[in-house]
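Why do we bother with holo predictions? Because pocket geometry can differ from the apo form. Keep that in mind while you read this record for flavin mononucleotide.
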Amino acid sequence: MIRLMYCSQAKPGFGSQTLEEILLASRKNNKQANITGVLVHGGGLFLQVLEGPELAVLRTYMKIVDDKRHTDSRIIHITPIKDRIFDNWTMGVLEGNPLTFENVAKLRAHRLETVAADSFTEVIREFESMLLR
Ligand SMILES: Cc1cc2nc3c(=O)[nH]c(=O)nc-3n(C[C@H](O)[C@H](O)[C@H](O)COP(=O)(O)O)c2cc1C
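The structure, written out:
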């Protein structure tokens, strides 16, 4: 298995309805592909973690990169893994401000939830330190 984390920029006009559409498709497809993860959305940015079988994650990421609802997708981190972090989230979502990483850790047990978030940068920092540990 691998874990891939990327960030990207939402296209102007991106709204909650579009996010809902993305999540609907993600949860259906990711379940089939044995992919779990989280999508953080705030300040016009996305941060997403995808984890699962290597080929499935890379195929999914290739689809995502081509998606016209966002731009400038950059892989931040990619690594082989033995264990999942978001093992019971087909695609969790964190939205808005503010949130500390502690909240994210607590929420791992609750898939399919939308949660208020503290600060997008803080989440990214926390994610990075967690993944690099
Ligand atoms: C920020 C962002 C994150 C996305 N995450 C996923 C995802 O985790 N899984 C997924 O299947 N599609 C995801 N998508 C949607 C894909 O780009 C694509 O629209 C979708 O997979 C097509 O699904 P379909 O073939 O069932 O219509 C994401 C799109 C965006 C813009």
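The chain is about 40% helix and 35% strand.
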